[in-house]
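Order emerges. As here.
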Amino acid sequence: MGTSAGALSSLLLGILLTSTPGALGANPGLVARITDKGLEYVAQEELVTLQSKLHDVTLPDFSGDAKIKYLGNAHYEFHSLNIHSCELLGSALKPLPSHGLHFSISDSFIRVKGKWKVRKRILKLDGSFDVTVKGITISVNLLLGSEPSGRPKVAVSSCSSNIRDVEVHMSGDLGWLLNLFHHQIESKFRRVLESKICKIIQDSVTSDLQPYLQTLPVTMEMDIFAGIDYSLMEAPQATAEILDVMLKGEIFSRDHRSPVAFLAPVMSLPEEHSRMVYFAISNYAFNTASLVYHKVGYLNFSITDDMVPPTSNIRLTTKSFRAFCPRLARLYPNTNLTLQGTVVSAPFLNFSPGNLSSAAQMEIEASVLLPNSVKEPVFRLGVATNVSVMLTFNASKITGFLKPEKIQVELKESKVGVFNVELLEALLNYYLLNTLYPKVNDKLAEGFPLPLLKRIQLYDPVLQIHKDFLFLGTNVRYLRV
């Protein structure tokens, strides 16, 4: 019975995790959608696994009393029952509106081999037998929900099974005699198997699958700075054609998690059903990531003269600044400068149909490097830049690439008089395009992980950009080992 539980668990986990505590009324940052096409594929693939595992199932012994011709009343036992062959010909997995999932198997058969014993007072007979069970039909409704921990839960709300025909053939000592009451044995087999099928399924869900679901992690580490929260916001929602799983989709600081000051937007998902799986990822996921990396100063930078290309017409020295800021050169002759850049606030990603963009506001403070490594601020710049964002996704994650525009620089404060910032603007453009943006693109190339099972390959993807969210559609295939 334990192996059959594992087989069913494999099928159900394929659904719950391909689809794997939020505040009441809050919107999800990530929605995983499985269409009827995707559920059909999962049912077909997992049926192959279930069929192979059924060979390891040990069926329960059963016994009884019967009136046997020529012997009268006798006690019989059937034991060591093993499934010799089976064929699960038809399966279906469909969304069950306002409930969860409906799983069914139909027009299937199994062949069971085992041993028999008959006892009549001092007379003892034994032998072997073959049973062919035809026309097996199983129908199960699964109620899907969520725990306060944000983990999924599942329960069997109804189960029924039916067997169309049972054929028994016995061999051994006086096996021909037992065949005379085969109709009694066949009837007994049918009743035993029909009663055991739903019990096995119920035990599988209650004792195997549900406890396992409670061990699933609802967060995942992304790097040393950030993690992602995949906890369920509410019970999965089923309609006639789709199953939607609402996940928090929040990027949080691994060092200190704190509440986010804004909510995820409402996502009005398109009525798309041509792919097996869809992911809707709101700007909430990306913007909470921006908060984390801004807080740790990931986008802050420092520029010193040794970082300026040798061919540059401007150096980070007061001598180089003499032409457009003579007072600086007089006050600090032959002194090196350093530029310290800080992003004023976390840059948020803006979604509009077909387009992704972001705007960053920075402040750059210039200081002269005095003896004993003392830095003395001399002027402060305001820097504004816009970037467009290109996104792609592969087998397990979304990756991005920034395509920046030229920056705009203005003098915010100066202790050395007003001066033209055009030359500094050129220097900063060079640094940002060749140093800072490549650093950000390297991080974006690491990607946003999607909540998928291992050994699943995505193909035939499609990416749409809507107001406030991305909508990714893909087909999937299992990679068998």
